[in-house]
Amino acid sequence: MQFDKIKYSNWWKRLKWGSQAQANTSLNILNFISVCGGVQQGESGIISSPNYPQPYNSSSLCSWLLIAPEGQTINLTFVAFEIESHRVCGWDSVTILNGGSPSSPVIGQYCGTASPGTIQSGSNQLLINFHSDHSIQGGGFQATWTADSLGCGGILHSENGAIRSPHWPQNFPRNTRCSWTIITHESKHLEIAFNASFQIPDSNGQYYVAIYDGPDIASPLLGKFCGDVSPPAIKSSSNNLLLLFITDSFGAAGGWRASFRETLGKHDNQVYMFAKKTTYLHTRSLHLSTRQGFLCKFFSVET
Ligand SMILES: [Ca+2]
Questions:
Q1: Tens of pLDDT, residues 77-127
Q2: What is the CA(18)–ligand 1 centre distance, in A?
Q3: How many Å lie between the centroid of ligand 1 and the Cα of residue 66?
Q4: I need a surface site. Which of 33, 54, 208, 298 has the fewest CB within 10 A?
Q5: Which domains are assigned to the chain?
Q6: Does the keyword Disulfide bond apply (predicted)?
Q7: Residue 99 dihedral angles phi and psi, to the nearest 5°
Q8: How far is the CA of 204 from the centre of ligand 1 (A)?
Q9: Which residues of 204-219 are buried (b: 16+ CB within 10 A; e: fewer)?
Q10: Do the Cβ atoms of 191 and 233 come closer than 8 Å?
Protein backbone atom coordinates (compact mmCIF):
# COMPACT_ATOMS: atom_id res chain seq x y z
CA MET A 1 0.00 0.00 0.00
CA GLN A 2 1.21 3.45 -0.87
CA PHE A 3 0.39 4.77 2.63
CA ASP A 4 2.55 2.11 4.26
CA LYS A 5 5.40 2.94 1.93
CA ILE A 6 5.38 6.60 2.87
CA LYS A 7 5.09 5.74 6.56
CA TYR A 8 8.07 3.42 6.47
CA SER A 9 10.11 5.20 3.85
CA ASN A 10 12.47 6.86 6.32
CA TRP A 11 13.16 3.58 8.03
CA TRP A 12 13.93 1.95 4.70
CA LYS A 13 15.97 4.92 3.62
CA ARG A 14 18.28 4.34 6.55
CA LEU A 15 18.58 0.66 5.72
CA LYS A 16 19.21 1.45 2.07
CA TRP A 17 21.86 3.99 2.96
CA GLY A 18 23.65 1.32 4.94
CA SER A 19 23.65 -1.27 2.20
CA GLN A 20 24.55 1.22 -0.51
CA ALA A 21 27.40 2.63 1.52
CA GLN A 22 28.71 -0.85 2.09
CA ALA A 23 28.54 -1.59 -1.63
CA ASN A 24 30.31 1.65 -2.51
CA THR A 25 32.99 1.15 0.09
CA SER A 26 33.85 -2.30 -1.12
CA LEU A 27 34.07 -1.06 -4.72
CA ASN A 28 33.52 -4.64 -5.59
CA ILE A 29 30.52 -5.15 -7.80
CA LEU A 30 30.91 -8.90 -7.42
CA ASN A 31 29.33 -8.50 -3.99
CA PHE A 32 25.98 -7.77 -5.48
CA ILE A 33 26.48 -9.66 -8.71
CA SER A 34 26.13 -12.76 -6.53
CA VAL A 35 22.55 -11.70 -5.90
CA CYS A 36 21.62 -10.98 -9.52
CA GLY A 37 23.16 -9.36 -12.56
CA GLY A 38 26.54 -10.37 -13.92
CA VAL A 39 29.38 -9.61 -16.28
CA GLN A 40 28.65 -9.85 -20.00
CA GLN A 41 31.64 -9.60 -22.29
CA GLY A 42 31.41 -9.77 -26.05
CA GLU A 43 29.52 -8.10 -28.84
CA SER A 44 25.89 -8.43 -27.72
CA GLY A 45 23.66 -9.61 -24.92
CA ILE A 46 20.39 -9.28 -23.06
CA ILE A 47 19.80 -8.15 -19.51
CA SER A 48 16.54 -8.27 -17.60
CA SER A 49 15.25 -7.75 -14.11
CA PRO A 50 15.00 -10.81 -11.83
CA ASN A 51 12.02 -13.06 -12.74
CA TYR A 52 11.33 -11.16 -15.97
CA PRO A 53 8.72 -11.21 -17.53
CA GLN A 54 7.17 -11.72 -14.10
CA PRO A 55 7.42 -8.82 -11.64
CA TYR A 56 10.83 -8.44 -10.04
CA ASN A 57 11.59 -9.33 -6.43
CA SER A 58 11.43 -6.88 -3.59
CA SER A 59 14.68 -5.75 -1.96
CA SER A 60 16.80 -6.57 -5.00
CA LEU A 61 20.21 -5.15 -5.71
CA CYS A 62 21.63 -6.18 -9.08
CA SER A 63 24.53 -4.96 -11.15
CA TRP A 64 25.42 -5.80 -14.73
CA LEU A 65 28.78 -4.94 -16.22
CA LEU A 66 28.80 -4.90 -20.03
CA ILE A 67 32.18 -5.06 -21.78
CA ALA A 68 32.47 -4.59 -25.54
CA PRO A 69 35.77 -5.13 -27.40
CA GLU A 70 38.38 -2.43 -26.83
CA GLY A 71 37.78 0.67 -28.95
CA GLN A 72 34.08 0.00 -29.46
CA THR A 73 31.05 1.55 -27.81
CA ILE A 74 27.84 -0.02 -26.52
CA ASN A 75 24.28 0.65 -27.62
CA LEU A 76 21.83 -0.44 -24.91
CA THR A 77 18.16 -0.50 -25.94
CA PHE A 78 15.32 -1.06 -23.49
CA VAL A 79 12.54 -3.14 -25.03
CA ALA A 80 10.40 -3.31 -21.89
CA PHE A 81 10.35 -1.02 -18.89
CA GLU A 82 8.00 -0.90 -15.91
CA ILE A 83 9.56 0.08 -12.61
CA GLU A 84 7.66 1.33 -9.59
CA SER A 85 7.23 5.04 -10.10
CA HIS A 86 8.54 7.70 -7.76
CA ARG A 87 9.26 11.39 -8.32
CA VAL A 88 13.02 10.96 -7.92
CA CYS A 89 13.10 7.16 -8.39
CA GLY A 90 13.70 6.80 -4.67
CA TRP A 91 11.92 3.46 -4.31
CA ASP A 92 12.86 1.26 -7.28
CA SER A 93 15.27 2.34 -10.00
CA VAL A 94 17.53 1.46 -12.90
CA THR A 95 20.75 3.47 -12.88
CA ILE A 96 23.11 3.49 -15.85
CA LEU A 97 26.75 4.48 -15.38
CA ASN A 98 29.04 5.43 -18.23
CA GLY A 99 31.98 3.19 -17.48
CA GLY A 100 32.88 0.04 -15.65
CA SER A 101 33.14 1.15 -12.03
CA PRO A 102 30.68 2.34 -9.37
CA SER A 103 32.36 5.76 -9.53
CA SER A 104 31.74 6.16 -13.26
CA PRO A 105 29.53 9.13 -14.21
CA VAL A 106 25.80 8.50 -14.08
CA ILE A 107 24.01 8.73 -17.42
CA GLY A 108 20.63 8.55 -15.77
CA GLN A 109 18.41 7.01 -13.13
CA TYR A 110 15.09 5.71 -14.39
CA CYS A 111 11.77 4.48 -13.01
CA GLY A 112 8.09 4.47 -13.93
CA THR A 113 7.04 3.52 -17.45
CA ALA A 114 9.09 6.06 -19.41
CA SER A 115 11.70 3.81 -21.04
CA PRO A 116 15.27 5.10 -21.17
CA GLY A 117 15.16 4.15 -24.87
CA THR A 118 18.60 3.65 -26.37
CA ILE A 119 21.70 4.58 -24.41
CA GLN A 120 25.10 4.93 -26.08
CA SER A 121 28.23 4.52 -24.01
CA GLY A 122 31.28 6.75 -24.22
CA SER A 123 33.68 3.84 -23.90
CA ASN A 124 33.57 0.07 -24.19
CA GLN A 125 31.97 -0.45 -20.76
CA LEU A 126 28.60 0.23 -19.16
CA LEU A 127 27.41 -0.54 -15.65
CA ILE A 128 23.68 -0.99 -14.97
CA ASN A 129 22.40 -1.08 -11.41
CA PHE A 130 18.90 -2.19 -10.48
CA HIS A 131 17.45 -1.59 -7.08
CA SER A 132 14.04 -2.37 -5.60
CA ASP A 133 12.74 -1.60 -2.15
CA HIS A 134 10.60 -3.64 0.24
CA SER A 135 7.18 -3.24 -1.37
CA ILE A 136 5.30 -2.78 -4.63
CA GLN A 137 6.97 -4.33 -7.65
CA GLY A 138 6.64 -3.42 -11.30
CA GLY A 139 6.75 -5.68 -14.32
CA GLY A 140 10.47 -5.14 -14.68
CA PHE A 141 12.68 -4.42 -17.65
CA GLN A 142 14.51 -6.07 -20.47
CA ALA A 143 17.24 -4.51 -22.60
CA THR A 144 19.43 -5.70 -25.44
CA TRP A 145 22.93 -4.43 -26.08
CA THR A 146 25.32 -4.54 -28.99
CA ALA A 147 28.90 -3.47 -29.48
CA ASP A 148 29.25 -0.74 -32.06
CA SER A 149 32.46 -0.44 -34.06
CA LEU A 150 31.07 1.63 -36.91
CA GLY A 151 29.30 4.21 -34.84
CA CYS A 152 28.78 7.58 -36.32
CA GLY A 153 27.79 10.29 -33.94
CA GLY A 154 25.66 10.30 -30.84
CA ILE A 155 25.39 11.95 -27.46
CA LEU A 156 28.18 10.77 -25.20
CA HIS A 157 27.90 11.42 -21.49
CA SER A 158 31.41 10.57 -20.44
CA GLU A 159 34.51 11.96 -18.77
CA ASN A 160 36.74 10.22 -21.30
CA GLY A 161 36.52 8.08 -24.38
CA ALA A 162 37.37 7.92 -28.03
CA ILE A 163 35.56 8.58 -31.28
CA ARG A 164 36.65 7.88 -34.83
CA SER A 165 35.54 8.14 -38.41
CA PRO A 166 33.26 5.33 -39.62
CA HIS A 167 35.13 2.11 -40.50
CA TRP A 168 38.35 3.41 -38.88
CA PRO A 169 41.12 2.37 -39.45
CA GLN A 170 39.78 1.65 -42.94
CA ASN A 171 38.62 4.42 -45.24
CA PHE A 172 35.47 6.28 -44.28
CA PRO A 173 32.49 6.03 -46.66
CA ARG A 174 31.10 8.72 -48.94
CA ASN A 175 28.39 11.12 -47.86
CA THR A 176 29.15 10.90 -44.17
CA ARG A 177 27.28 13.14 -41.74
CA CYS A 178 28.37 12.38 -38.21
CA SER A 179 27.62 14.53 -35.19
CA TRP A 180 28.96 13.82 -31.71
CA THR A 181 27.90 15.81 -28.68
CA ILE A 182 30.23 15.09 -25.79
CA ILE A 183 29.10 16.03 -22.28
CA THR A 184 31.12 15.65 -19.11
CA HIS A 185 30.52 16.71 -15.50
CA GLU A 186 29.16 20.18 -14.97
CA SER A 187 31.90 22.73 -14.14
CA LYS A 188 34.53 20.62 -15.92
CA HIS A 189 35.98 21.18 -19.39
CA LEU A 190 36.90 18.81 -22.22
CA GLU A 191 40.06 18.31 -24.20
CA ILE A 192 40.04 16.42 -27.46
CA ALA A 193 43.25 15.20 -29.11
CA PHE A 194 43.62 13.52 -32.50
CA ASN A 195 45.84 10.58 -33.34
CA ALA A 196 48.94 11.29 -35.40
CA SER A 197 47.36 9.46 -38.30
CA PHE A 198 44.89 11.97 -39.69
CA GLN A 199 43.69 11.84 -43.28
CA ILE A 200 40.84 13.90 -44.65
CA PRO A 201 41.43 14.67 -48.32
CA ASP A 202 40.76 18.27 -49.14
CA SER A 203 37.81 18.36 -51.48
CA ASN A 204 37.57 22.12 -51.73
CA GLY A 205 36.13 22.41 -48.26
CA GLN A 206 33.59 19.60 -48.65
CA TYR A 207 35.38 17.18 -46.30
CA TYR A 208 36.18 18.26 -42.78
CA VAL A 209 36.03 17.80 -39.03
CA ALA A 210 34.56 20.80 -37.21
CA ILE A 211 34.61 21.31 -33.46
CA TYR A 212 32.26 23.71 -31.70
CA ASP A 213 32.62 25.10 -28.20
CA GLY A 214 29.14 24.08 -27.06
CA PRO A 215 26.24 21.76 -27.85
CA ASP A 216 25.30 22.95 -31.37
CA ILE A 217 26.54 24.72 -34.48
CA ALA A 218 25.41 28.06 -33.07
CA SER A 219 28.26 27.69 -30.57
CA PRO A 220 31.66 29.26 -31.35
CA LEU A 221 33.72 27.30 -33.88
CA LEU A 222 36.94 26.09 -32.27
CA GLY A 223 38.41 24.58 -35.42
CA LYS A 224 37.67 23.16 -38.82
CA PHE A 225 40.20 20.65 -40.10
CA CYS A 226 41.13 18.65 -43.16
CA GLY A 227 44.30 17.58 -44.91
CA ASP A 228 46.92 15.22 -43.59
CA VAL A 229 48.17 17.15 -40.58
CA SER A 230 46.73 16.10 -37.26
CA PRO A 231 44.97 19.05 -35.56
CA PRO A 232 46.31 20.37 -32.26
CA ALA A 233 44.57 19.39 -29.01
CA ILE A 234 41.35 21.39 -28.60
CA LYS A 235 39.87 22.52 -25.30
CA SER A 236 36.28 23.47 -24.63
CA SER A 237 35.38 26.33 -22.33
CA SER A 238 32.48 24.43 -20.77
CA ASN A 239 31.49 20.84 -20.07
CA ASN A 240 30.32 20.03 -23.59
CA LEU A 241 31.38 20.25 -27.20
CA LEU A 242 30.13 19.27 -30.63
CA LEU A 243 32.21 17.51 -33.27
CA LEU A 244 30.95 17.20 -36.85
CA PHE A 245 32.47 15.00 -39.53
CA ILE A 246 31.25 15.77 -43.03
CA THR A 247 32.14 14.16 -46.35
CA ASP A 248 30.42 14.24 -49.72
CA SER A 249 30.28 11.98 -52.75
CA PHE A 250 33.78 12.87 -53.92
CA GLY A 251 35.21 9.57 -52.70
CA ALA A 252 35.95 7.39 -49.73
CA ALA A 253 39.37 7.84 -48.22
CA GLY A 254 41.38 8.27 -45.06
CA GLY A 255 40.07 8.63 -41.55
CA TRP A 256 40.86 9.85 -38.08
CA ARG A 257 40.56 8.94 -34.43
CA ALA A 258 40.40 11.26 -31.43
CA SER A 259 40.35 10.72 -27.71
CA PHE A 260 38.70 13.07 -25.26
CA ARG A 261 39.07 13.59 -21.56
CA GLU A 262 37.72 15.78 -18.84
CA THR A 263 39.94 18.61 -17.64
CA LEU A 264 39.67 20.94 -14.70
CA GLY A 265 37.09 23.69 -14.98
CA LYS A 266 37.81 27.38 -14.63
CA HIS A 267 36.50 27.36 -11.09
CA ASP A 268 38.96 24.71 -10.00
CA ASN A 269 41.90 26.13 -8.07
CA GLN A 270 44.68 24.91 -10.34
CA VAL A 271 43.16 26.37 -13.46
CA TYR A 272 42.26 29.58 -11.71
CA MET A 273 45.96 30.12 -10.95
CA PHE A 274 46.83 29.29 -14.53
CA ALA A 275 44.16 31.63 -15.84
CA LYS A 276 45.57 34.49 -13.79
CA LYS A 277 48.91 34.11 -15.54
CA THR A 278 47.41 33.93 -19.01
CA THR A 279 44.79 36.58 -19.25
CA TYR A 280 43.71 36.33 -22.84
CA LEU A 281 42.63 33.98 -25.57
CA HIS A 282 43.35 34.64 -29.17
CA THR A 283 42.46 32.90 -32.37
CA ARG A 284 44.76 32.53 -35.26
CA SER A 285 43.97 31.26 -38.68
CA LEU A 286 46.35 30.18 -41.37
CA HIS A 287 46.18 28.59 -44.73
CA LEU A 288 48.06 25.39 -45.39
CA SER A 289 48.46 23.80 -48.73
CA THR A 290 47.83 20.08 -48.98
CA ARG A 291 49.49 17.67 -51.36
CA GLN A 292 46.57 17.99 -53.73
CA GLY A 293 47.16 21.69 -53.98
CA PHE A 294 43.82 22.75 -52.54
CA LEU A 295 43.59 25.21 -49.73
CA CYS A 296 42.51 23.93 -46.39
CA LYS A 297 41.69 26.41 -43.68
CA PHE A 298 42.79 25.78 -40.12
CA PHE A 299 41.77 27.57 -36.99
CA SER A 300 43.18 26.94 -33.60
CA VAL A 301 42.54 28.50 -30.26
CA GLU A 302 45.56 29.04 -28.08
CA THR A 303 45.78 29.95 -24.48
CA1 LIG B 1 9.19 -1.24 -4.96
A1: 999 999 999 999 999 999 999 888 888 878 889 999 999 988 878 678 899
A2: 18
A3: 25
A4: 54
A5: 2-148 (2.60.120.290), 154-302 (2.60.120.290)
A6: yes
A7: 150, -175
A8: 59
A9: eeebbbbbbbbbeeeb
A10: yes
